[in-house]
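Researcher: For the record, we're logging two predictions in this thread. I'll number them. Prediction 1 follows.
Model: Prediction 1, sequence and structure:
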Amino acid sequence: MHDQVISILLTGVGGQGTVLAGRILSRAAASLGWDVKVADLHGMAQRGGSVITHVRFGTKVYSPVITQGTADYLVAFEKLEACRCLPFLKGEGVLIVNDQEIPPLPVLTGASSYPEGLLEMLRARVKKVAIVDALKKAKEAGSAKAVNMVLLGVLARHLSIPRECWEEAISTSVKSEFREINLKAFTLGWESIT
């Protein structure tokens, strides 16, 4: 049992499956009898804006909201979102980041440009960083939309939740026709951590 509360922040842009990933994470944790709290915050999600999901679990959790400097894990589905949410990660926290660029609206309209050197900056500021080409692994699993499952697979290797709990949570959270692809993507993420 986790006497301390584990705080995990998932961040991405609309359409990347951040909310579904949070739901699967919370189901996997709840299957072990832990108290789980979840909060989803949507920016202009339908327009490719930020989506942030807070997941906290342990023996007793009083609030779903993760405050700055307290997240044990930050799982970023996109590099710029990793930078935006970095203040939430605690000093000894783990950053898992998808090496993917999804240009926000100001970049698409030409009002600004996508910042360069983000991974180098993240590596310089965080001791424990796992950079994953989740899009490549998702495509390998059979769908570019399975990036969220790849990243969950990477995260799962850091948590004390048995693999079968994750697989059960995925199986009950996704439509049957997508189950095989999602489980394969999760496995590719799980196996990418050595």
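Researcher: Logged. Prediction 2.
Model: Prediction 2, sequence and structure:
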Amino acid sequence: MKRNASAEWTGSLKEGRGTMSADSGVLKDTQYSFSTRFEDGIGTNPEELIAAAHAGCYSMALSAELGKAGFDPQSVRTSATVTLEMLDGGPTITNVHLVAVANVPGADDEAFQEVANGAKEGCPISRVLDTEITLDATLEN
């Protein structure tokens, strides 16, 4: 399985602008710029898209792992915060922090935490990122 997206940038780094699109159509000429990435401009940025991808991937991975452990998850809500820092080598993603809340009838917290941490390690987006990934997982019954 392959997924495709594209980006086009015109102009200099600080004054230029770009657009991103995905073959699915969910992104179509979506604007990004220096100010949307490094300041508070309106539009998206690569780090925000990584956060969305990681949150979605982790929610699915946790649901799958809970099912394998014999639980029937009713819902999994995940947010992801990507930290971008200016280091000597340039802008670097230094951490992704996941916060997950799951409604899993019949699960106890100890079993849930074990499955939640395993899902963090096994999520394909977690595996592609070469950075620290932290997790706060809460069981909601």
